[in-house]
Design brief:
- It is a single chain.
- The protein is of the alpha/beta class and 422 residues long.
- The protein folds into two domains: 216 residues, Spore Coat Polysaccharide Biosynthesis Protein SpsA, Chain A (Alpha-Beta Complex); 150 residues, no CATH class.
- It contains 15 helices and nine strands.
- Strand 2, helix 2 and strand 3 form a beta-alpha-beta unit.
- Helix 1 runs parallel beside helix 2, helix 10 packs antiparallel against helix 11 and helix 11 runs parallel beside helix 14.
- The termini are far apart.
Length: 422
Amino acid sequence: MPCLNEAETVETCVRKALTCMREHDIDGEVVIADNGSTDGSQQLARDAGARVVHVEEKGYGNALIGGIRAARGRYVIMGDADDSYDFTALLPFVEQLRDGADLVMGNRFKGGIAPGAMPPLHRYLGNPVLSFVGRLFFPSAIGDFHCGLRGFRRDSILRLGLQTGGMEFASEMVVKSTLQGLDVREVPTTLSPDGRSRPPHLRSWRDGWRHLRFLLLYSPRWLFFLPGLALMVLGVVAGTALAFGPVWIGELAFDVDTLVGASAAVVIGFQAVLFALFTKVYAAEEGFLPEDRRIKRLVDVITLERGLVAGGLLALAGLAGLVASLVHWQVRSFGELDPRESLRLVVPSATALIMSLQTVFAALFISILGIRRTKETPIDVAASAAEEAAEQVSKETAAEAAVEAAGETAVETAGESAPAKA
């Protein structure tokens, strides 16, 4: 249980959890991950039978990961120390874990939310919307992404390398478990009004934004690729239509001004698609996201040489368009031009030149990202340690042999000189 000034409720929570374990013959402990309480919560928790560990780095996520690392059990069940969750009803979580689940989420919407337990903003907007976004962005069936009561295999969660220190830790655990293919399940749980007289630590808009920001950053497809692709398609369709003349829709006329906007949409969309590719490659290389076979195949196809060729072809097309625009100007005796005619040549040509440079730079950058660093595996570490140990033994053996040889020489010398002294 993460704890920050929970003197009013922490003792009750600890006693409920210990009672549940005794009743169901569960060999376990209650760990309080204290995040700097100043109201005596630590001693109250100890008196109730908990083990208290101090987590210096502030934040909900930091407190939880500190408690998870300190836990001694095979399975861990985490829950807030505000008495809003029923710690006497933990058996469904334990049963699912014993059945092979890696992560078992509570679902408050299925189990029941008592009147006054959840603000209307969270119940009808925040949690449903963020949970929907999580299911949309990631292949997850979890209905309550932010339930604070959940159980998991300790080793499975530690292998995920969770990093967020705030409230978004709850989303990170679900997202990374899903992306890594862990067995994630859900059980109904209840939510009651917490037993504290002070306001909760949660800040609705700030923490809601942090959850949404995390979901976006971990899904380059929705953050970059799909919006960028939509912009590109819109820009190409509009630009192609306008390149041959104005387009009328009813009484509205779309002309070269719209063509400039279409060109901007193509460039921005193409840049966004490239960012999606950069993000996926970098995240896979650094271990933030699992490797995507489609991205790997695409990177194998988009070699530096092919990128340079594609960029060169786009540059040639752009230059050809600019030459055509110069010819058009020459025909007009290098005098004043009608923008409605000249821009239909210049804008597509400039767009092609911009995209040519983007393509070349993207190919170079992807090639840099694709340079794999030598990573030392556990086998390499063990082999290196064995070699060092063998080398040390060899040195010690040589030293001992040298000492023995020196001793024998000294004895022989003493034996030869003994008669003379006599």
